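Pasting as-is:
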Amino acid sequence: MQYLHHPDRAGPFIGVLVDRWNRKAFLIGADILIALAGAVLAAAAAQSTLPTWLILAILFLRSIGTAFHTPAMNAVTPLILPRDQLARTVGFTQAILSISYILSPLGGALFYAIWPMEGFIALDMAGAAIASLAVAAVKIPALPAGERSFPAPFLEELAAGYRALRAHKGLFTLMATGTLYMFVYMPINALFPLMSTMYFGGTSAHAAAAEIAFAIGMLLGGLLLGVWGGFRRKTHTICLSILMMGTGLAVAGLLPRRGFIGFAACCLVMGASGPLYGVANVLYQEQIKPEYLGRVFSLSMSLMSLAMPLGLLFSGALARKFGINRWFLLSGLTILTIALLTWRHPAIRAIDPKEPAPEGRQIS
């Protein structure tokens, strides 16, 4: 049952398949699988009451599609883009996602009132078709035969991906601190609505306003990274992101009960920090060989998905005992400590030294 909700925990195994087979096919297949799963769920809902087992099965299939799509996308990105544009691409991608977070609820509410269920199925399928055709039209260079370690026993390929990451001490440490960061931060997502309603005494409209402020922050942060590209030393951009998140949480935890406007401003800052942290992916894309990227990104997804439920259990107990606002403050202070650790750790500092990066890797 745990894997039913978190198939990304099988990510390292999925990463082997992503690195072994055609990544374009994975991208197209994942989009189609997600769309078909949604179509089955919508069609079943139109016919009768949905059984619980069917909802869980559909969620499992959609999560499997995401578990394949995300590492495959991250693995092919450095093959089709100039290396000096990777960080900017992360920024603009996050900006586009934030627009969907803002417009999707509004559009969903509007279309739900005027469209039948079949309209939503058609819209979902059309989106998958457009995405698949776009991926099919992009030329993705194949890895040179000499760079591939296949065929080999499955577990040996899995171990090879881990060794490729472990050989980069700084990246391995960065992934470890990132997992700790997600352990502290991700449970906050579940507490945002409660902070708006229970602590500040707001309504569902206040909770929605906080979420919209966060999404607007993501939009602004993505556009900033897209135009700016981040610091020359990418680890500085990552530290800035963690610092902004920790500061936003800590300040939110100190606000009085009538300080909802200040909380919305903190949400804006926290949202803006998200795209900046995406520069961590660029470091993996630059310094890990392309034939191992699927496994490395899948391992990262698995660690993050494992950190989320553990962090939620831990934070839920403390939030009930000490109060939601105090947990925000404690989380913020902990994340600020993680930012300092990331900033000062010798292995992380050595990932991208002070000297100018070679041509094709510099982001200014």
